[in-house]
Amino acid sequence: MKYQIDRFTALYIFPFAAIGVLFPLIGQYLSYIGFTGAQIGTITASATAIGIVSNSFWGSIFHSTNRNKKLILFLCIITACLALCLMLIKQFLIFLLMYIIIFFFENPIFPLIDATTIQANYPFGKARKWGAVGFALGIGVAGFMADSFGLITIFPIFSFFFNYDSSLYTNLHKKRFSKARLI
What we know:
By secondary structure, the protein is mainly alpha-helical. The protein has 7 helices and no strands. It has a single domain, classed as Growth Hormone, Chain: A (Up-down Bundle), CATH 1.20.1250.20.
């Protein structure tokens, strides 16, 4: 049982670390590239607003298929890849559109991880608290990297954490499949 909790714990650390990288520093980055306060507010609010649609959309797919881990894996990979595009965009409307697209895929990851944890009968509180640890880890890493190499580093770090999480999902799926075949 301890081994399984540790694996689910790791699945919480990295996506929350990604959010810890992006959310505290995105406003500073947008200001740095010349966006106004109103533009920054619009962009950051769009992430929450798109969640109203995306969580329902991806949640219905999650509940109607039996490929929960593959769906989360897909969402992590798409989020990580698209986030790198933000480094290249300096125009407000294009940035806003890309941000909305990214968060269409990113927003449902957290409730789907929660649902997967609960469906697997893992102790939810023990696994979920590691999301806070991940968020703090992300802030620490991003702050240091932004000071050392510039604010633009938030995008590759954000992507790294989601890619790492997707690799954990891949390994979780492979180990469960292998274990099932041995029994």
